[in-house]
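User: I'm writing a short methods note and want a consistent example. For Transcriptional regulator, GntR family with aminotransferase domain, I'll paste the sequence; you return only the C-alpha coordinates, no commentary, since I'll be parsing the reply automatically.
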Amino acid sequence: MLTMDNPTALPRYQQLADDLGEAMRSGVLRPGDRLPSVRETCRERGLSPATVFHAYGQLEAEGLIEARPRSGYFVCTPRRALRAPPRAAPASSTAQPVAVSALVFDLLGSTSRPGVVPLGSAFPAAHLFPFEALARSGARTMRKLGPAQITGALLSGDDGLRQALRRRYALHGVALADDELVITNGAMEALNLCLQAVTQPGDVVVVESPTFYAALHALERLHLQAVEVRTDPQEGVDLAALEALLAAQPVAACWFMPSFQNPLGALMPAARKQALVELLARHRVPLIEDDVYGELHAGARRPLPAKAFDRDGGVLHCASFSKCLAPGYRVGWAAAGRYTAQVQRLKMMSSLATALPPQMALADYLGQGVYDRHLRQLRAALAAQQRRALRLIERHFPAGTRVTRPSGGYFLWLDLPEAVDGVTLHRRAMALSISTAPGVLFSADARFAHHLRLNVGHPDDPRVDAALRTLGELACEMAAGR
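Assistant:
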Protein backbone atom coordinates (compact mmCIF):
# COMPACT_ATOMS: atom_id res chain seq x y z
CA MET A 1 0.00 0.00 0.00
CA LEU A 2 1.24 3.49 -0.82
CA THR A 3 1.78 5.70 2.22
CA MET A 4 1.91 9.42 2.85
CA ASP A 5 5.43 10.65 3.67
CA ASN A 6 4.38 14.01 5.09
CA PRO A 7 0.70 14.17 6.06
CA THR A 8 0.74 17.89 6.85
CA ALA A 9 2.70 19.41 3.96
CA LEU A 10 0.03 19.23 1.21
CA PRO A 11 -3.73 18.73 0.85
CA ARG A 12 -4.64 15.06 1.05
CA TYR A 13 -5.70 14.78 -2.59
CA GLN A 14 -2.32 16.21 -3.59
CA GLN A 15 -0.48 13.73 -1.39
CA LEU A 16 -2.34 10.87 -3.05
CA ALA A 17 -1.69 12.26 -6.54
CA ASP A 18 2.01 12.74 -5.76
CA ASP A 19 2.32 9.23 -4.29
CA LEU A 20 0.72 7.67 -7.35
CA GLY A 21 2.83 9.82 -9.69
CA GLU A 22 5.99 8.68 -7.91
CA ALA A 23 4.84 5.06 -8.15
CA MET A 24 4.53 5.52 -11.92
CA ARG A 25 7.94 7.14 -12.25
CA SER A 26 9.64 4.43 -10.19
CA GLY A 27 7.97 1.57 -12.08
CA VAL A 28 5.80 0.31 -9.22
CA LEU A 29 2.84 1.21 -11.42
CA ARG A 30 3.48 0.49 -15.11
CA PRO A 31 1.69 1.50 -18.32
CA GLY A 32 -1.55 -0.48 -18.56
CA ASP A 33 -1.77 -1.23 -14.83
CA ARG A 34 -5.15 -0.68 -13.21
CA LEU A 35 -5.20 1.71 -10.26
CA PRO A 36 -6.99 0.67 -7.07
CA SER A 37 -10.67 1.50 -7.27
CA VAL A 38 -11.97 4.62 -5.56
CA ARG A 39 -13.61 2.44 -2.92
CA GLU A 40 -10.39 0.48 -2.27
CA THR A 41 -8.35 3.65 -1.99
CA CYS A 42 -10.84 5.23 0.39
CA ARG A 43 -10.64 2.17 2.62
CA GLU A 44 -6.84 1.83 2.55
CA ARG A 45 -5.99 5.51 2.89
CA GLY A 46 -8.85 6.66 5.08
CA LEU A 47 -9.94 9.23 2.49
CA SER A 48 -13.30 10.43 1.26
CA PRO A 49 -14.49 9.55 -2.26
CA ALA A 50 -14.34 13.25 -3.20
CA THR A 51 -10.65 13.39 -2.23
CA VAL A 52 -9.81 10.30 -4.30
CA PHE A 53 -11.79 11.54 -7.32
CA HIS A 54 -9.95 14.88 -7.04
CA ALA A 55 -6.56 13.14 -7.08
CA TYR A 56 -7.49 10.80 -9.94
CA GLY A 57 -8.95 13.72 -11.89
CA GLN A 58 -5.70 15.64 -11.52
CA LEU A 59 -3.64 12.67 -12.75
CA GLU A 60 -6.03 12.21 -15.66
CA ALA A 61 -5.74 15.91 -16.59
CA GLU A 62 -1.95 15.56 -16.61
CA GLY A 63 -2.19 12.62 -19.01
CA LEU A 64 -0.76 10.10 -16.53
CA ILE A 65 -3.88 7.94 -16.19
CA GLU A 66 -7.06 7.36 -18.18
CA ALA A 67 -10.59 6.41 -17.17
CA ARG A 68 -12.14 3.44 -19.01
CA PRO A 69 -15.93 3.11 -18.81
CA ARG A 70 -17.04 0.46 -16.29
CA SER A 71 -13.42 -0.65 -15.87
CA GLY A 72 -11.71 1.96 -13.69
CA TYR A 73 -8.53 4.02 -14.01
CA PHE A 74 -5.39 2.81 -15.84
CA VAL A 75 -1.83 4.08 -16.19
CA CYS A 76 -1.31 5.66 -19.61
CA THR A 77 1.40 4.60 -22.03
CA PRO A 78 3.88 7.49 -22.42
CA ARG A 79 3.32 9.20 -25.74
CA ARG A 80 6.77 10.75 -25.99
CA ALA A 81 9.98 10.76 -24.02
CA LEU A 82 10.35 13.64 -21.59
CA ARG A 83 11.93 16.77 -22.97
CA ALA A 84 15.55 17.28 -22.01
CA PRO A 85 16.30 20.30 -19.81
CA PRO A 86 17.96 23.34 -21.45
CA ARG A 87 21.73 23.58 -21.30
CA ALA A 88 23.47 26.48 -19.58
CA ALA A 89 24.35 29.07 -22.20
CA PRO A 90 27.82 30.63 -22.41
CA ALA A 91 27.86 34.24 -21.25
CA SER A 92 30.00 37.15 -22.36
CA SER A 93 32.48 38.34 -19.74
CA THR A 94 32.51 41.85 -21.23
CA ALA A 95 30.73 44.59 -19.28
CA GLN A 96 28.29 46.58 -21.39
CA PRO A 97 25.74 49.37 -21.02
CA VAL A 98 22.11 48.25 -20.78
CA ALA A 99 19.30 49.43 -23.06
CA VAL A 100 16.39 46.98 -22.91
CA SER A 101 13.44 49.05 -21.72
CA ALA A 102 12.19 49.98 -25.20
CA LEU A 103 12.23 46.32 -26.29
CA VAL A 104 10.39 45.20 -23.16
CA PHE A 105 7.70 47.85 -23.62
CA ASP A 106 7.36 46.94 -27.28
CA LEU A 107 6.98 43.21 -26.72
CA LEU A 108 5.05 43.13 -23.44
CA GLY A 109 3.06 46.36 -23.59
CA SER A 110 -0.15 44.75 -24.82
CA THR A 111 0.09 41.36 -23.10
CA SER A 112 -2.14 42.37 -20.17
CA ARG A 113 -5.11 43.55 -22.23
CA PRO A 114 -8.44 41.76 -21.56
CA GLY A 115 -8.87 38.48 -23.36
CA VAL A 116 -5.19 37.69 -23.74
CA VAL A 117 -4.10 34.30 -22.35
CA PRO A 118 -1.37 35.41 -19.89
CA LEU A 119 1.48 32.99 -20.62
CA GLY A 120 3.77 36.02 -20.76
CA SER A 121 2.67 37.65 -17.51
CA ALA A 122 4.71 37.84 -14.31
CA PHE A 123 1.92 37.00 -11.83
CA PRO A 124 -0.07 33.87 -11.00
CA ALA A 125 -3.84 33.75 -11.39
CA ALA A 126 -5.72 36.18 -9.13
CA HIS A 127 -8.13 33.54 -7.84
CA LEU A 128 -5.27 31.81 -6.02
CA PHE A 129 -5.02 34.63 -3.45
CA PRO A 130 -7.18 35.27 -0.34
CA PHE A 131 -8.37 38.74 -1.27
CA GLU A 132 -11.60 38.49 0.73
CA ALA A 133 -9.72 37.58 3.91
CA LEU A 134 -7.24 40.39 3.27
CA ALA A 135 -10.12 42.82 2.75
CA ARG A 136 -11.60 41.83 6.11
CA SER A 137 -8.20 42.38 7.71
CA GLY A 138 -8.03 45.79 6.05
CA ALA A 139 -11.47 46.78 7.31
CA ARG A 140 -10.59 45.75 10.87
CA THR A 141 -7.32 47.67 10.91
CA MET A 142 -8.76 50.81 9.31
CA ARG A 143 -11.15 51.17 12.24
CA LYS A 144 -8.15 51.34 14.56
CA LEU A 145 -6.10 53.73 12.46
CA GLY A 146 -5.52 57.18 13.97
CA PRO A 147 -3.36 60.21 13.10
CA ALA A 148 -0.73 59.43 15.73
CA GLN A 149 -0.34 55.89 14.42
CA ILE A 150 0.01 57.09 10.85
CA THR A 151 2.74 59.62 11.59
CA GLY A 152 4.54 57.31 14.03
CA ALA A 153 4.91 54.55 11.45
CA LEU A 154 5.56 56.79 8.47
CA LEU A 155 9.28 56.15 8.06
CA SER A 156 9.83 52.83 9.81
CA GLY A 157 6.71 51.00 8.64
CA ASP A 158 4.05 49.20 10.64
CA ASP A 159 5.60 47.63 13.73
CA GLY A 160 3.24 44.65 13.63
CA LEU A 161 4.30 43.80 10.10
CA ARG A 162 7.98 44.23 10.91
CA GLN A 163 7.64 41.86 13.89
CA ALA A 164 5.81 39.30 11.75
CA LEU A 165 8.54 39.46 9.12
CA ARG A 166 11.30 39.04 11.69
CA ARG A 167 9.51 35.96 13.04
CA ARG A 168 9.38 34.42 9.56
CA TYR A 169 13.05 35.18 8.99
CA ALA A 170 13.87 33.48 12.28
CA LEU A 171 11.72 30.51 11.29
CA HIS A 172 13.84 30.16 8.14
CA GLY A 173 17.15 30.37 9.98
CA VAL A 174 17.91 34.07 9.57
CA ALA A 175 18.33 36.31 12.62
CA LEU A 176 17.80 39.97 11.78
CA ALA A 177 18.82 43.02 13.76
CA ASP A 178 15.83 44.98 15.11
CA ASP A 179 16.35 47.89 12.72
CA GLU A 180 17.51 45.95 9.65
CA LEU A 181 14.17 45.80 7.83
CA VAL A 182 13.19 48.58 5.43
CA ILE A 183 9.55 48.38 4.28
CA THR A 184 9.20 49.35 0.62
CA ASN A 185 6.69 49.75 -2.21
CA GLY A 186 7.05 46.19 -3.44
CA ALA A 187 10.22 44.20 -3.99
CA MET A 188 11.22 46.25 -7.02
CA GLU A 189 11.66 49.38 -4.90
CA ALA A 190 13.65 47.35 -2.38
CA LEU A 191 15.91 45.98 -5.11
CA ASN A 192 16.37 49.37 -6.76
CA LEU A 193 17.20 51.06 -3.45
CA CYS A 194 19.71 48.35 -2.59
CA LEU A 195 21.33 48.60 -6.00
CA GLN A 196 21.58 52.37 -5.69
CA ALA A 197 23.05 52.05 -2.18
CA VAL A 198 26.04 50.00 -3.34
CA THR A 199 26.85 51.45 -6.78
CA GLN A 200 27.81 54.61 -8.63
CA PRO A 201 27.05 55.39 -12.30
CA GLY A 202 29.42 53.48 -14.55
CA ASP A 203 29.98 50.62 -12.09
CA VAL A 204 29.86 46.99 -13.18
CA VAL A 205 27.13 44.73 -11.78
CA VAL A 206 27.10 40.95 -12.33
CA VAL A 207 23.74 39.41 -13.26
CA GLU A 208 22.67 35.89 -14.18
CA SER A 209 22.46 34.73 -17.80
CA PRO A 210 19.55 34.81 -18.49
CA THR A 211 18.33 37.35 -15.95
CA PHE A 212 15.02 39.00 -15.08
CA TYR A 213 14.44 41.97 -17.37
CA ALA A 214 13.48 44.22 -14.42
CA ALA A 215 17.06 43.86 -13.15
CA LEU A 216 18.26 45.13 -16.51
CA HIS A 217 15.77 48.02 -16.26
CA ALA A 218 17.29 49.00 -12.92
CA LEU A 219 20.83 48.93 -14.32
CA GLU A 220 19.75 50.97 -17.31
CA ARG A 221 18.08 53.61 -15.13
CA LEU A 222 21.14 53.99 -12.89
CA HIS A 223 23.61 54.06 -15.84
CA LEU A 224 25.37 50.89 -14.70
CA GLN A 225 27.09 48.27 -16.82
CA ALA A 226 26.05 44.62 -16.84
CA VAL A 227 28.24 41.59 -17.09
CA GLU A 228 26.46 38.26 -17.31
CA VAL A 229 27.63 35.07 -15.65
CA ARG A 230 26.87 31.56 -16.86
CA THR A 231 23.85 30.18 -15.01
CA ASP A 232 22.79 26.53 -14.91
CA PRO A 233 19.04 26.00 -15.44
CA GLN A 234 18.93 23.67 -12.44
CA GLU A 235 21.57 24.84 -9.94
CA GLY A 236 21.99 28.53 -10.67
CA VAL A 237 25.11 30.67 -10.96
CA ASP A 238 28.33 28.98 -12.08
CA LEU A 239 30.61 29.80 -9.14
CA ALA A 240 33.84 29.10 -11.04
CA ALA A 241 32.80 31.50 -13.80
CA LEU A 242 31.84 34.09 -11.18
CA GLU A 243 35.18 33.77 -9.41
CA ALA A 244 36.98 34.33 -12.73
CA LEU A 245 34.89 37.46 -13.34
CA LEU A 246 35.68 38.84 -9.90
CA ALA A 247 39.39 38.28 -10.47
CA ALA A 248 39.35 39.88 -13.93
CA GLN A 249 37.63 43.22 -13.28
CA PRO A 250 36.27 45.50 -10.55
CA VAL A 251 32.71 44.54 -9.65
CA ALA A 252 30.48 46.78 -7.52
CA ALA A 253 27.71 44.26 -6.79
CA CYS A 254 25.96 41.06 -7.82
CA TRP A 255 22.18 40.89 -8.35
CA PHE A 256 21.10 37.23 -8.19
CA MET A 257 17.94 35.22 -7.61
CA PRO A 258 19.23 32.02 -5.93
CA SER A 259 15.78 30.46 -5.32
CA PHE A 260 13.54 29.71 -8.33
CA GLN A 261 15.27 32.19 -10.57
CA ASN A 262 13.21 34.11 -13.11
CA PRO A 263 13.18 33.00 -15.95
CA LEU A 264 14.97 29.65 -15.45
CA GLY A 265 13.39 28.50 -12.20
CA ALA A 266 16.85 27.39 -11.03
CA LEU A 267 17.35 26.61 -7.33
CA MET A 268 20.88 26.85 -5.96
CA PRO A 269 21.48 24.09 -3.41
CA ALA A 270 22.19 25.36 0.12
CA ALA A 271 25.88 24.42 -0.08
CA ARG A 272 26.29 26.45 -3.27
CA LYS A 273 24.51 29.42 -1.69
CA GLN A 274 26.91 29.27 1.23
CA ALA A 275 29.88 29.07 -1.15
CA LEU A 276 28.49 32.04 -3.10
CA VAL A 277 28.19 34.19 0.03
CA GLU A 278 31.69 33.25 1.18
CA LEU A 279 33.19 33.97 -2.28
CA LEU A 280 31.60 37.42 -2.41
CA ALA A 281 32.62 38.16 1.18
CA ARG A 282 36.26 37.44 0.29
CA HIS A 283 36.04 39.95 -2.54
CA ARG A 284 34.00 42.45 -0.47
CA VAL A 285 31.29 42.47 -3.14
CA PRO A 286 27.71 42.89 -1.88
CA LEU A 287 25.01 40.47 -2.99
CA ILE A 288 21.54 41.81 -3.76
CA GLU A 289 19.35 38.73 -3.27
CA ASP A 290 15.99 38.78 -5.03
CA ASP A 291 13.90 36.21 -3.14
CA VAL A 292 10.33 36.94 -4.25
CA TYR A 293 9.68 33.28 -5.18
CA GLY A 294 11.22 31.63 -2.10
CA GLU A 295 7.85 30.80 -0.53
CA LEU A 296 6.67 29.02 -3.69
CA HIS A 297 8.69 25.83 -3.23
CA ALA A 298 7.20 22.51 -4.30
CA GLY A 299 9.09 20.54 -1.64
CA ALA A 300 8.28 20.14 2.02
CA ARG A 301 10.62 22.88 3.26
CA ARG A 302 11.39 26.41 2.15
CA PRO A 303 14.91 26.60 0.72
CA LEU A 304 17.31 28.63 2.82
CA PRO A 305 18.04 32.06 1.35
CA ALA A 306 21.62 33.15 0.77
CA LYS A 307 21.00 35.60 3.62
CA ALA A 308 21.07 32.64 6.02
CA PHE A 309 24.83 32.31 5.40
CA ASP A 310 25.65 36.02 5.71
CA ARG A 311 28.11 36.72 8.52
CA ASP A 312 29.28 40.25 7.72
CA GLY A 313 26.14 42.02 6.49
CA GLY A 314 27.06 41.80 2.81
CA VAL A 315 23.77 40.27 1.64
CA LEU A 316 20.89 42.67 0.93
CA HIS A 317 17.87 40.36 0.96
CA CYS A 318 14.75 41.61 -0.84
CA ALA A 319 11.27 40.10 -1.03
CA SER A 320 7.58 40.96 -1.04
CA PHE A 321 4.06 39.53 -0.78
CA SER A 322 3.27 40.24 -4.44
CA LYS A 323 3.85 36.71 -5.78
CA CYS A 324 2.68 34.66 -2.80
CA LEU A 325 -0.14 36.52 -1.01
CA ALA A 326 -1.20 39.99 -2.11
CA PRO A 327 -0.54 41.16 -5.69
CA GLY A 328 -1.34 44.84 -5.99
CA TYR A 329 -0.76 45.66 -2.31
CA ARG A 330 2.79 46.69 -3.22
CA VAL A 331 4.35 45.81 0.13
CA GLY A 332 7.93 44.62 0.01
CA TRP A 333 11.04 44.91 2.14
CA ALA A 334 14.80 44.79 2.27
CA ALA A 335 16.92 43.22 4.99
CA ALA A 336 19.90 45.28 3.94
CA GLY A 337 22.66 44.18 6.35
CA ARG A 338 25.45 46.69 6.77
CA TYR A 339 23.87 48.88 4.09
CA THR A 340 20.61 49.44 6.02
CA ALA A 341 21.30 53.10 6.83
CA GLN A 342 22.02 53.93 3.17
CA VAL A 343 18.86 52.13 2.02
CA GLN A 344 16.75 53.89 4.65
CA ARG A 345 18.13 57.26 3.60
CA LEU A 346 17.45 56.57 -0.10
CA LYS A 347 13.94 55.41 0.74
CA MET A 348 13.23 58.67 2.56
CA MET A 349 14.68 60.71 -0.33
CA SER A 350 12.66 58.88 -3.00
CA SER A 351 9.21 57.77 -1.85
CA LEU A 352 9.43 58.74 1.86
CA ALA A 353 7.17 55.94 3.07
CA THR A 354 5.07 52.93 2.10
CA ALA A 355 1.29 53.19 2.45
CA LEU A 356 0.32 52.12 5.97
CA PRO A 357 -3.16 50.54 5.48
CA PRO A 358 -1.91 47.65 3.29
CA GLN A 359 0.89 46.98 5.79
CA MET A 360 -1.58 46.83 8.67
CA ALA A 361 -3.93 44.57 6.73
CA LEU A 362 -1.10 42.16 6.00
CA ALA A 363 0.07 42.19 9.62
CA ASP A 364 -3.48 41.40 10.76
CA TYR A 365 -3.74 38.55 8.25
CA LEU A 366 -0.37 37.09 9.27
CA GLY A 367 -1.43 37.25 12.91
CA GLN A 368 -4.36 34.91 12.26
CA GLY A 369 -2.09 31.90 11.66
CA VAL A 370 -3.61 31.06 8.26
CA TYR A 371 -0.78 32.21 5.97
CA ASP A 372 1.01 28.86 5.84
CA ARG A 373 -2.23 27.03 5.06
CA HIS A 374 -2.77 29.43 2.14
CA LEU A 375 0.81 28.84 0.98
CA ARG A 376 0.37 25.05 1.03
CA GLN A 377 -2.73 25.36 -1.16
CA LEU A 378 -1.01 27.81 -3.50
CA ARG A 379 2.08 25.63 -3.87
CA ALA A 380 0.00 22.55 -4.58
CA ALA A 381 -2.03 24.34 -7.26
CA LEU A 382 1.09 25.73 -8.95
CA ALA A 383 2.92 22.38 -8.86
CA ALA A 384 -0.07 20.56 -10.36
CA GLN A 385 -0.42 23.14 -13.11
CA GLN A 386 3.28 22.90 -13.91
CA ARG A 387 2.99 19.15 -14.37
CA ARG A 388 -0.05 19.63 -16.60
CA ALA A 389 1.75 22.23 -18.73
CA LEU A 390 4.82 20.00 -19.10
CA ARG A 391 2.66 17.18 -20.43
CA LEU A 392 1.17 19.51 -23.04
CA ILE A 393 4.60 20.81 -24.05
CA GLU A 394 5.88 17.24 -24.42
CA ARG A 395 2.99 16.41 -26.73
CA HIS A 396 2.67 19.52 -28.87
CA PHE A 397 6.02 21.32 -29.21
CA PRO A 398 8.53 20.48 -31.96
CA ALA A 399 11.24 17.87 -31.65
CA GLY A 400 14.40 19.34 -30.16
CA THR A 401 12.54 21.58 -27.70
CA ARG A 402 14.13 21.58 -24.24
CA VAL A 403 12.24 22.69 -21.13
CA THR A 404 13.05 23.24 -17.48
CA ARG A 405 11.36 21.38 -14.61
CA PRO A 406 11.70 23.78 -11.66
CA SER A 407 11.04 22.65 -8.10
CA GLY A 408 9.18 25.87 -7.33
CA GLY A 409 7.78 29.08 -8.76
CA TYR A 410 5.57 29.07 -11.84
CA PHE A 411 7.79 29.74 -14.86
CA LEU A 412 9.04 27.34 -17.52
CA TRP A 413 12.02 28.20 -19.75
CA LEU A 414 11.91 26.72 -23.25
CA ASP A 415 14.92 26.29 -25.51
CA LEU A 416 13.38 25.94 -28.98
CA PRO A 417 14.89 24.63 -32.24
CA GLU A 418 17.04 27.23 -34.00
CA ALA A 419 14.49 27.70 -36.77
CA VAL A 420 12.01 29.03 -34.19
CA ASP A 421 12.63 32.71 -33.44
CA GLY A 422 11.11 33.63 -30.08
CA VAL A 423 10.06 37.16 -31.06
CA THR A 424 8.37 35.98 -34.26
CA LEU A 425 6.59 33.23 -32.34
CA HIS A 426 5.51 35.80 -29.74
CA ARG A 427 4.05 38.10 -32.41
CA ARG A 428 2.21 35.24 -34.15
CA ALA A 429 0.80 34.09 -30.81
CA MET A 430 -0.24 37.63 -29.84
CA ALA A 431 -2.25 37.80 -33.08
CA LEU A 432 -4.25 34.92 -31.55
CA SER A 433 -4.44 36.65 -28.13
CA ILE A 434 -1.76 34.45 -26.51
CA SER A 435 1.07 36.25 -24.73
CA THR A 436 4.58 34.93 -24.13
CA ALA A 437 7.86 36.41 -22.90
CA PRO A 438 10.55 36.00 -25.62
CA GLY A 439 14.02 35.07 -24.48
CA VAL A 440 15.68 38.21 -25.87
CA LEU A 441 14.14 40.18 -22.99
CA PHE A 442 16.32 38.37 -20.46
CA SER A 443 19.78 39.48 -21.55
CA ALA A 444 21.58 42.78 -21.98
CA ASP A 445 22.74 41.77 -25.47
CA ALA A 446 19.45 40.23 -26.67
CA ARG A 447 20.76 36.67 -26.76
CA PHE A 448 18.38 33.72 -26.20
CA ALA A 449 16.66 34.41 -29.52
CA HIS A 450 15.24 30.87 -29.63
CA HIS A 451 13.91 30.81 -26.08
CA LEU A 452 10.61 31.57 -24.34
CA ARG A 453 9.56 32.04 -20.75
CA LEU A 454 6.06 30.76 -20.08
CA ASN A 455 3.94 31.52 -17.01
CA VAL A 456 2.11 28.35 -15.98
CA GLY A 457 0.66 29.84 -12.79
CA HIS A 458 -2.93 29.83 -14.07
CA PRO A 459 -4.67 26.62 -12.98
CA ASP A 460 -8.38 26.15 -13.66
CA ASP A 461 -8.20 28.39 -16.73
CA PRO A 462 -9.52 26.34 -19.67
CA ARG A 463 -7.87 28.75 -22.12
CA VAL A 464 -4.37 27.76 -21.01
CA ASP A 465 -4.45 24.19 -22.34
CA ALA A 466 -5.71 25.39 -25.73
CA ALA A 467 -3.12 28.19 -25.77
CA LEU A 468 -0.25 25.78 -25.11
CA ARG A 469 -1.46 23.48 -27.88
CA THR A 470 -1.74 26.43 -30.28
CA LEU A 471 1.68 27.76 -29.31
CA GLY A 472 3.17 24.32 -29.90
CA GLU A 473 1.52 24.11 -33.32
CA LEU A 474 2.90 27.55 -34.26
CA ALA A 475 6.38 26.48 -33.14
CA CYS A 476 6.12 23.26 -35.16
CA GLU A 477 5.17 25.25 -38.26
CA MET A 478 8.18 27.53 -37.78
CA ALA A 479 10.49 24.57 -37.15
CA ALA A 480 9.29 23.11 -40.47
CA GLY A 481 10.05 26.37 -42.26
CA ARG A 482 6.46 27.55 -42.66
